[in-house]
Amino acid sequence: MLVLAAVGLGLASTGANLLLERQERSSITPYGERIQISGGAVNVYRNGQPGQPIVLLSGLGTAAPALDFAPLIRELGDYNVTVVEGFGYGYSDMSASERSNKNINTELHEVLGKLNITQPYTLAGHSIAGFYMLDYANRYPAEVAAVIGIDVTVPKATGGTVEVQSGGLDVARLLSMAGVVRAALAVAPGLGEPDGDAYTPEERERMRLMTSWNFGNQAVADETARIGNNASDLRGISYPEGLPVLSFVADDGSPEAAAKADALENLLKNVRRHEIVPLAGGHYLHWTQSGPMAAAIRNFLAAR
Known about the structure:
By secondary structure, the protein is an alpha/beta fold.
């Protein structure tokens, strides 16, 4: 009897969550534009400015990348900023083929080609985007003018290929569909909202909602499962020596922060012009340090 009651409550909660999500989606106008590529539809946000092009790539599982980067986009208002939300992110399709470095960057390249982004452009990315920018700069070196890292993940491959498990029970997605994520965000909204005071109330609310909508989707689940293999594929790969690289590192005074700075220095040791800039703050530096970051980016690109 208890099992039947639990199942009934689960079904009721799932139905209520789906109804709420449908109402929310219908009442909020999506930002950006969906670009159709061979694998599906990818959402892209552009600030519409005529300046030097910068392409922004989010960290792993960021529910709404264009909103997540909003403070930095505002600070870089004199640049032509484009946020590409890969599969599983923002308003893009939530399912995709295997999330290997190659597939992710082939899709990114196809999107940028359809947008006719002026080449060469600057790639800027947060966290796991460090993998993809390193791979992209080696696949399409003539198209990249510079790379900017925001507390990027440095690939450390210590083993070989790992078998990726797929097709099983996706607990995270079930929790999202059943409304558990929505309930958790209602009780503790800070779980789905950024730190600092650089966001509007509307941006915060939408980020919270989109966290509920997108949590545990197939594309991000597959990307997460492939982190080890994607790191292994980058073993021994470095940036082209003539490509300028600016990298911000979250500096909280911990040994881990110092170790990350050392790993970056080792990765960039062959790059003739590189800078590693420590900034006080957490992993999402652009939440609280967009002003200093934009100033450093502007100086770095101007000196190029």
